């Protein structure tokens, strides 16, 4: 899990829901949103992931019961993620996804935290793995949602648990297990030679 950030560039929501009677009445109930704010900071995302916002919502819905609903999802660039990664993790390079916990613990049922994606890194990884950008982004959305829920992969046991859960949640979306090696090309399976 990425370290909490109190300076995330996406403002956190101050809302209360019926699940938290202690704060009910402080904030208007109409402020509660079922889905996160989705920001597309670079329009190139739409070239590689048609209906990107719909993919984000659909993937987060598949995480229900395991992952945590973020307050926002930002489809950004390597440049932005490299700066954030340097500021918050001391790693001055881009990464595929960053998750940020909110500076406060949101009441149960209230979205919280941000998930930010780096376009060029996501494209590079999808191409290297021979996957569609949409499938790779869906995997990373699941990964980020699980990080927000407290799952991590710093030790072998927790990494294996997270990988198995990611595969299970992706199967809800009919996306192949990203941790299982893909088979040979069709021509190779049928015994034909590839040029």
TrEMBL record:
A biological process from GO: rRNA processing
PANTHER family, alphabetized: ENDORIBONUCLEASE YBEY, CHLOROPLASTIC (PTHR46986:SF1)
Main localisation: cytoplasm
Record-given protein name: Endoribonuclease YbeY
Any one Gene Ontology cellular component term annotated for this protein: cytoplasm
Catalytic class of the enzyme: hydrolase
Role of this protein: Single strand-specific metallo-endoribonuclease involved in late-stage 70S ribosome quality control and in maturation of the 3' terminus of the 16S rRNA.
Subcellular location: Cytoplasm
Cofactor descriptive note: Binds 1 zinc ion.
Cofactor(s) it depends on: Zn(2+)
HAMAP family recorded: Endoribonucl_YbeY (MF_00009)
Similarity field: Belongs to the endoribonuclease YbeY family.
Disordered, as annotated region: 1-20, 176-195
Single GO molecular function: metalloendopeptidase activity
EC number per UniProt: 3.1.-.-
Protein source organism: Acetobacter orleanensis
């Amino acid at each position: 899990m990425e370290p909490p950030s109190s300076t995330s560039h996406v403002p956190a929501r101050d809302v209360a829901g019926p699940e938290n009677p202690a704060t009910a009445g402080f904030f208007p109930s109409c402020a509660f949103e079922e889905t996160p704010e989705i920001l597309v900071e670079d329009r190139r995302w739409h070239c590689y992931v048609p209906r990107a916002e719909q993919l984000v919502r659909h993937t987060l819905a598949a995480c229900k019961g395991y992952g945590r609903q973020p307050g926002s999802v930002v489809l950004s660039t390597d440049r932005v993620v490299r700066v954030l990664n340097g500021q918050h993790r001391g790693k001055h390079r881009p990464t595929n996804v960053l998750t940020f916990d909110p500076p406060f613990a949101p009441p149960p049922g209230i979205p919280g935290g941000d998930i930010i994606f780096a376009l060029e890194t996501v494209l590079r990884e999808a191409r290297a793995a021979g996957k569609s950008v949409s499938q790779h982004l869906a995997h990373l959305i699941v990964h980020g949602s699980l990080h927000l829920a407290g799952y991590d992969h710093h030790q072998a046991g927790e990494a294996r648990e997270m990988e198995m859960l990611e595969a299970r949640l992706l199967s809800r979306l009919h996306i192949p297990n990203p941790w299982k090696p893909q088979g040979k090309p069709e021509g190779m399976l049928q015994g034909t030679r590839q040029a």
